[in-house]
Model the fold of this input.
Amino acid sequence: MRTLLLLTAVAVAPLLAADATAQAPAAQRPLTGTWRSAPDEMKLTSEFDRSVWGANATSVRTVELVVKSNTDATLRVVKKVVDGKRRTVPASTWVEEAQLRIGGTAPGVADRVEHEVAVTSAVRLFPDDPNYRFTLDGLRVKLVTFTARDGNSLEVRYDTPEGRGSFWETLTRARTAPPRAARTPANTGS
Done:
């Protein structure tokens, strides 16, 4: 009987170990680096929009997250209006910039990993008026990464203090440009 139990234990142990390995979450890649969204575009079609921005205008929002270290990051949301020829309409650009402190993680639903985020400061800026700065007290940001993906995407939840303008967005890791080969002068043979 003991021999049978021992043989069963020897046969089952590798199967249990393989199952545990298959279920173990993938190691998290560091968040450091630059993350960007695709432009989120919305046509401005109301009579009011046409009277202010012109025909065929589009509102464009882009999001960029620069993670400087495992704990410090800057989130930048740029909103602007482009005309029918894709030129930025003067005085339409505003920038919301938040300094973030990234903390620990907690498992979320399925393969989601929720990162603790504290907004240490946040401002709304208008590049056309450099003296204007509006503090965004109460801004909340959430970051989510995924264990079952390649580590090159994350989600940002952005909740404004007034509620209007809140969104979630998927960001992808920015590709770093390969080093450029040094040019050698062409030998003209003269």
Summary: The radius of gyration is 25 Å. Residues 80 and 190 are 55 Å apart (CA to CA). Residues 3-27 have pLDDT under 50 and may be disordered. The chain has two helices and ten strands.
